[in-house]
Records
---
Amino acid sequence: MIVRRLSLLFLWGGLVLAALTGGLGLRRTHAQAEATPTPPPPPVAEKTATSPAPVATSPPGGGGDGGGKKTPTLTPRPPGGTSVPPAGTPGEMSSPTAWPTETPTATLTPTPTVPPTLLRLVVFMDANGNGDFDTGEGVDHLLALARWETWQTYGYTADGYLTFSVPPKIPAGAQIAVEAPYLHWSSQVKAPELSGLAETALKLELPEFPVFLP
């Protein structure tokens, strides 16, 4: 009986000790868990704008230092690695240049000049009697006229010549009357072809004076 009680007592003591040992282990584990802080989450890195890396470009004109050395000019590079082509490269977007529009000018075509159709009257005094108009034999300031139907013109001789301009309405071959009214002389002249010349002559003889007066 005593042995049974001792066995129960030891069993009970073992259970109590086991319970105490287990509870102490749980408290220690909980205490360790509370003593060990949970590390905070890593901070999120904020995106900051990075300054573009400078790009070395050569100034136009080859520099003026006299030594042939070009001093590079630092040009900021835009973010993202996009390169900007320097001025004057094929990739540059330049604004279109407005060129002046040429206004066509009208070319004036000269009108060809048609020579006039002429009618000439020759009046001379045949002083030497050879029948030809020689130098110094022309008659000046003699009134003469030319007419055809309703057309009529007149003029005065100079150095023995008088030239009339025949209008285009007079057909070639038409009879034009040429007159010297003060001398009661007239002649019929055929109208010339277009831009042609027709001529008639009035020859005056030297008057005969008596050798002796009656």
---
Amino acid sequence: MSLLNIRENYNFIEAVINSFGSGCGFALALIIFSAIREKMQLNDVPKAFEGTALALVTVGLLSMAFMGFQV
């Protein structure tokens, strides 16, 4: 975060707000990912997608969804 704040020439208040927002976004992504994983544990998942494979597919779909928020 500090390198992004320096590159964008943010003052102290802007840097604090930017860092707080980034932390909130990361926490939101973790909460969404854990909720999806909990739902997947309740469903029947094909053998090929159990474990890490399902996690990678889920992360890929989440990353495409979050790309819609880019400016």
---
Amino acid sequence: MALINWRKRVGDEEANRRTRNAVDRGNWLHGLLEDLFNGEDVQTHLDSHENYVPYFESIAGFLEQVDSPLLVESAIAWYDPAEKIGYSGTFDMLAKMKNGETALLDWKTSYKEKPDNQLADYRMQLGAYVQAIEQMYGIAVNEAHCAISIYDPDTKQGQEAQIVSLSPGELVMQAGIMQRKTSQFFAEHYPGGTPLTILMDRGA
């Protein structure tokens, strides 16, 4: 509903423009960060899209907390054999942080800082992915961070990235929310049937 109201407020043309920009800049930032942590030269990324560089600058301070990547741009799935339901998606990075903890990292971009009531899905996604990582790989994930890079190309105003962080207890709680939503989804759409999985799509 919020997305529909936003589209009505700004108009279809502006909404479509911003949506295309969000996809393009999100793909650019993900590609740059993947190459950066793979030890590759990222200057080509920076030179090819100078208008997107402020998004990288916004997130640069947070990147200093990352020691080394463990998994990058990896497909993931969680399955409940009792209910025969599950979900799948692709997470951005599992990394060893400089504080010694293993953390799930998620990269997003935005024109402006998001209010807390718009972060629920991000938190649930972190919990869902950590649950899947621990089931698939047997890796204990101690924390998760969604780093939202902020820059408004219209006003040329940016700021330090907004970081949404979850502790182990919060991750368990968010994973539980995702499990309930998954169960509800299959009960509504596959009553009495044999479901497969639903996709946790990555946001820009």
---
Amino acid sequence: MTAIANRGALIMSTKFEAVTNLADAPVEGGDASAPWASEYQVLTPHMREAGGRLGMVMNRLPPGSVGCPFHWHTHEDEVFYIVSGRGVLRYGKTLRDIGPGDCISCPAGTKTAHQIANPYDEDLMYLAAGNYDANEVCGYPDTGKVMVRSLGTVGRLEAAEYMDGEPEPPRIFGLHDEFASKR
């Protein structure tokens, strides 16, 4: 941390980089072929390490590509702003064309899934902004998958009765007997 004098006031400055230029942001993704050929550039790379939870990403969808599977969020709101090109938004049970100047709001907790695709002949460029939540859970209605971030897992849940598979007697009694015999 360094001190900077400014008009008689002392301002503390950290090494936090508050500004990222798009030209300096590395391009990620894009290593798959269509339909999963999207690329993105993280515009807020230092936000999380500084304690922030908001992020912004520039996305590029080449023709014939989809940004991600159809999904909904429990904790993370998302907003998309179309910069250039045309695309299609799938939002719940609706499908609509999107283009420059459109701003798309996807509130968390509604279980309304969303997906952006580019069925056209030119790149679709859009900004995505949203908060990060370590306890995020996403649902994927087309495939029945669930993502649980805190577990680092994407999979499918199988419904079961609450006591299904619990041992008789409960394991704690055997552990107690082992513990008591070592005293």
